[in-house]
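Supplementary Methods, section 5.1.

A reviewer requested that the exact input to the structure prediction be made available. We therefore reproduce it here, unchanged from the version used in the analyses.
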Amino acid sequence: MYRTIESESGQQMVEEKVVYPRRQRELESLVQKLGLPDRVQLKWPLLDKALTHPTFSPASNYEQLEFLGDAVVRMAASDLLLEIYPDCSVGQFSAIRKVLVSDRVLAQLADLYGLERYLLIDRNAARDEMGRQSRVADAFEAVLGALYLSTHTLELIRPWLDPHFQRLAAEIIADPAYLDYKSALQEWTQACHKVLPEYRTRPTQDNGKDQFTAEVWLLGQRYGTGKGRSRKAAEQAAAKEALLSVHENQKKTKKA
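The structure derived from this sequence is encoded token-by-token as follows.
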């Protein structure tokens, strides 16, 4: 089904509609929840596909759109962080973004908009509580992919996603426990050197208190050292120092 609408500039635009009127109304309800304009130029069949689980339709489902949406959500988060925290290091950006685009956070955002109620899925698969977070997060990314393909920009995404990411980023910065420096460092080492960092952790004492000291090594070079009350905390501290070192080296290279 198609219809022709007139934009504010007077130009005619063809708005693609999905086949089933009931489904169309459901999707329009979701778009309204996102706060998008009534006359938004949207590829509705793509949005329908983004909310179709593989168990419902093995041939036409959200998997490809989810693949694209994974890149789109990272782009949206990166754009926002560069705008609101221009003085942050690359390591801090990576660590914050890692949390923002995690399945846990994306599933929470999906729940805010009741995304699951629009998801077409096999009944047995829907009962799988263990896989719920992952499939809802995947559907959320697929929706972002569909919105991106409608304009090939972030104009249908950032207006409603930015406030959530801005709030969460502030919470992450206020509480470093949210940050996952190890994952951010691993992303960098794999992208730049195709290897994983190595952690050498040992129990130590500080003023009579038991703790751990960790060193992170890469290609035979020590990149950072950290201490913490647990192995995990010590390794996170070492990864943070390593990322800061990487950022400083990058700045020196640019100046040279």
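Confidence is low (pLDDT under 50) at residues 1-15. These observations are discussed further in the main text.
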